[in-house]
Amino acid sequence: MITSPSIDDMLEGLILALDADIMPHLEQPKAQASAQMMQSLLQGIRQLLPVYDASLIEEHNEMNKGIREAAALVEGVSGPEADRMRARAETIAAVADLPAPLDMVEVKAAHRVRTEAVRDSLIDLDELQRAGVDAADDSLNALRAMLTPHYLRYMGTFPMQGGMLGRG
Amino acid sequence: MHAQLAAALSAVFDDGLPIEVSGLDALPGGFSRETFMFDATTIDGDTSKTRPMILRKDPPPSVAILETSRLVEHNLLEGLRAHTNLPVSRSYCVEMDPAVFGEQAMIIERMPGSGQTSDLFNGGPDADQVDDVMRSLCEILVELHETSIDTIDPDGALNDPRQVGIDPTSWDAYMDSTFQYYIDAYPDIEYDPLLLVILDAFLWLRRNKPRPMPLAIVHGDFNPANFLYADGRVTALIDWENTRVGDPREDLGWMVLMDVLSNTQVMAHPADEGGFLAYYNKLRGLDITPEELGYFTLFGTANIAVPVNRALARRTRKEQTEFLHLYMLQSSAPALMSFLSLLGYPGVPA
Predict the structure, then answer these.
(1) Does A3 contact B at CB distance below 8 Å?
(2) Of A123, A141, A162, Cβ closest to residue B263
(3) CATH tag, B111-350
(4) Would you kindly state where each structural domain of chain B is located, as residue ranges?
(5) How many Å apart are CA B276 and CA B142, to the nearest integer?
(6) Which tens digit of pLDDT belongs to each residue from B55-67?
């Protein structure tokens, strides 16, 4: 999966391109306003993305806790409403908290270290193959088999649309 | 810009007549040069003559994809016009002083014909012309590849135009020095783990050198967007900035890859000749195999991949903010799949 540029880098690039390549050529005020709205929305997405997963999980866990606390505060109350609150605390809110997501900066750094190890292995295998070591063929094939799904996943999630645009 | 264009052309025409520049407009298309169309009209009393023109201008160095010389391109075009029947633009003048147009620039003839080459494919409005146009394109490529290198390039400007140590004194020397150029360039272009397959390809190319073939002048960016056509024939082969001495199979291989990226089917035509490769082989009396074509798809692609990915690496490091380079990250991704396929990665269709 692509790591550089990051998703944030690409969104920033769109905002800059709207500024540099599109807005100077828009003559209609409505179109200019739409472009500014796009920039605003893109900037919002840039800020939303890095905290989105962590916020969902945090809010999930806080709701668990809140439902339990709310039910505890009506412990002495009778009636179907209070019963339903206690039931929610004992079922939905009784499940374990979700784990916090991994720090993506750490994940990317670890990914980078493995990438460099694969790169260095490709170079070593090339030396072995040029020296006539047959086992290097199978070893290279194993690395390629490992890499194939990485590329297929990337192509499947970030596909090009309609050929190279703007080239005739 | 109008005054600078008129002044530059006045020096070329040298007839003292006033020149009026009109219709100046930026063109989409080329990813590496800034291209503008305009008309230059000379007025002599009651008569006037209008010439269609193109201004090809370098982008700022920080966003350049291919660092090539307009002077070399100018001399090449004029050499091709003088010594071949190839349909190429006249190059009126080259301006190497960036003070005039902002960067190095050249003014060339705007050739007739449609550049909307996608109309030839996928049921487009000119699909009925595709076999004839591809036949014409193939014949033009053959003429280029059979043109004497010494005649077109007596000073050797096309031997190593990027000045990266390419040695064209023999086919073996050319290939070996090019492998080294690719491999040495890798650390500079490695902006993401996705580039690993490119390193794998560079190393594989060196381990699997095919049979030799006489070197030739190669177009260097022979792709489905770099020709114009009309009435069933090619009216111009354009964009000669990456032309150099090389293996002629590179042009064929690069077209294979660009066919995939452009969603076109150049290599499948002319159908009545069995496709582009078969017709090329027939015209030249060669037997270039599909395996060799695959090899040179990688080799020819690598030649472009080095400068393109170097530019993308600069973009990812935010040394510049060119949007096109971000788009190329996405639009060039199918090339990676072609690399996987040609290298025989397990689980990837051949």
Answers:
(1) yes
(2) A162
(3) 3.90.1200.10
(4) 1-110, 111-350
(5) 11
(6) 998 888 777 788 8
| B4 vs A: CB within 8 A | no
d(CA A164, CA A20): 21
Q: Are B247 and B213 in contact (CB under 8 A)?
A: yes
The CA distance from A54 to the nearest CA of chain B, in Å, is 26
Q: Does B263 contact A at CB distance below 8 Å?
A: yes
Q: Is the ipTM here above 0.90?
A: no
- Amino acid (one-letter) located at B266: V
Cβ neighbours of B88 (radius 10 Å): 22
What are the pLDDT digits (tens) for B220-256? 999 999 999 999 999 999 999 999 999 999 999 999 9
Residue whose structure tokens are 């009435």 = B231
- The residues facing B44 across adjacent strands are B47
- Residue A5 — pLDDT band, cuts 50, 70, 90? confident
Q: What is the CATH number of domain B1-110?
A: 3.30.200.20
Q: Read off the pTM.
A: 0.86
DSSP H or E stretch at residue B41: strand B34-44
How many other CB atoms are there within 10 angstroms of residue A10's CB atom?
A: 18
Among all chains, which residue has been given the structure tokens 């690409």? A10
Nearest by CB to residue A160, choosing from B192, B315, B333, is: B333
- Residue by residue, DSSP assigns B255-294 as HHHHHHHHT--GGG-SGGGTSHHHHHHHHHT----HHHHH
Query: What is the pLDDT, as a whole number, of residue A161?
Result: 64
Q: Which residue has the tokens 């500014």?
A: A36
Instruction: Give yes or no for a contact between B216 and B145, defined as CB atoms under 8 angstroms apart.
Output: yes
Is the pLDDT assigned to residue A81 strictly greater than 60? yes
φ/ψ region of B117 (left if φ > 0, alpha if ψ in -120 to 50, else beta) reads: alpha
Tokens describing residue A40: 């605003």
Contacts of A152 in chain B (CB under 8 A): 347-348
Does residue B118 sit at the A interface (CB-CB below 8 Å)?
A: yes
Task: Give average pLDDT by consecutive 10-residue segment, chain B, 350 residues.
Answer: 88 83 82 84 87 90 82 95 96 92 92 94 96 98 97 95 95 98 94 92 96 97 95 96 96 93 93 97 96 95 90 88 81 82 88
* Residue B82 vs residues B76, B90, B143, B236: alpha-carbon distances, Å: 10, 10, 14, 15
